Structure formats: structure tokens, C-alpha cells
């Protein structure tokens, strides 16, 4: 009886860890695009979230265009260069920020289209973001940064 309870507790613990790793992820910052908010080498906890839950001003982690979603969520950490961290400047349905995003000055329409985001690095001089490449698609979203991991 005690053995069966121990097995159930162990299985429950494993399932809880698997669920947490699917919901949360730890990434390491590389590059200077988010200075002074986040520095190279800092580790961040992010929560996977659907695009409909995003708010302007949140910091998000996305897969870089041209790369598929990494295997990192299964292991819980990622340090690869295929992830980008940026601040959400405009969401689907928001006015296109033509004044601050040169790549979108000639974009058709007046609103950010469904399935697209405008994202900017805090350090404009060191960030390749929507100012250069225009919209990023919401299917690239991995999650929202919750906090830094204490060293």
C-alpha cells in the first residue's frame, strides 16, 4: 500500500514538472537590443501565452523569422540565437505606428493586421526589430517575460 502511494506521488510530481515546463521557460539574453532593461547573460522566466493575451508594452520572446519553434520548451531552457526578445509596440487592430517604425510608413491600411505585431528593442541603436523588418507574425510568439532569474 505504501509503495503504491509512493508511486502515485512520484508520478504526480513528474506530471507537475512536465506541465510547468510546458507553461514556463527560461531563456538567456544575448545581445544588447534590450539594454538597459535586460543585459546580456541575464536569465529570464517567460510564460507561454496566446497572442490574444498580449498587451502593448509587454516584453515578449519570439522565434526569429526563418526558424521554427525550438526544442527548448521541452528542456526548460534555451540560449540559442534563434530567439529574439522585444517590447510589444502595437497589436492587431492598433493604429500602425508609422512615425516610429520607418519600415511601416508605406504599409497598407491604418491598423495592424490580424496575426501581426509591431515589436521594438529598448536600445534602438542595437536592435533589429520592426523599425527595420516591419511586422512580425504572432505565430512566432513563445511567451511573455515575467521576471529575471536571480543569480
TrEMBL record:
Enzyme nomenclature, EC number: 3.4.21.89
Q: Where is the signal peptide?
A: none
What region holds the Peptidase S26 domain? Answer: 13-97, 109-145
Primary location: membrane
* Cellular localization per UniProt: Cell membrane
List the catalytic activities from the record: Cleavage of hydrophobic, N-terminal signal or leader sequences from secreted and periplasmic proteins
Family matches, as Pfam families: Peptidase_S26
Q: Which keywords does UniProt give here? A: Hydrolase
- Top-tier EC class: hydrolase
In the record, the note on similarity to other proteins reads: Belongs to the peptidase S26 family.
**Protein name per Swiss-Prot or TrEMBL:** signal peptidase I
Supply the source organism's classification: Bacteria, Bacillati, Actinomycetota, Actinomycetes, Streptosporangiales
Amino acid at each position: 500500500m505504501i509503495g503504491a502511494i509512493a508511486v502515485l506521488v512520484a508520478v504526480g510530481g513528474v506530471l507537475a514538472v512536465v506541465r510547468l515546463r510546458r507553461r514556463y521557460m527560461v531563456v538567456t539574453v544575448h545581445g544588447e537590443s534590450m539594454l538597459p532593461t535586460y543585459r546580456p547573460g541575464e536569465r529570464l522566466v517567460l510564460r507561454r501565452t496566446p497572442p490574444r493575451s498580449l498587451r502593448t508594452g509587454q516584453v515578449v520572446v519570439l522565434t526569429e523569422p526563418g526558424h521554427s519553434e525550438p526544442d527548448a520548451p521541452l528542456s526548460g531552457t534555451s540560449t540559442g540565437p534563434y530567439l529574439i526578445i522585444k517590447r510589444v509596440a502595437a497589436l492587431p487592430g492598433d493604429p500602425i505606428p508609422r512615425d516610429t517604425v520607418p519600415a511601416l510608413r508605406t504599409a497598407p491600411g491604418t491598423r495592424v493586421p490580424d496575426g501581426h505585431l509591431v515589436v521594438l528593442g529598448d536600445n534602438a541603436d542595437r536592435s533589429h526589430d520592426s523599425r527595420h523588418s516591419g511586422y512580425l507574425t504572432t505565430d512566432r510568439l513563445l511567451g511573455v517575460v515575467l521576471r529575471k532569474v536571480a543569480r
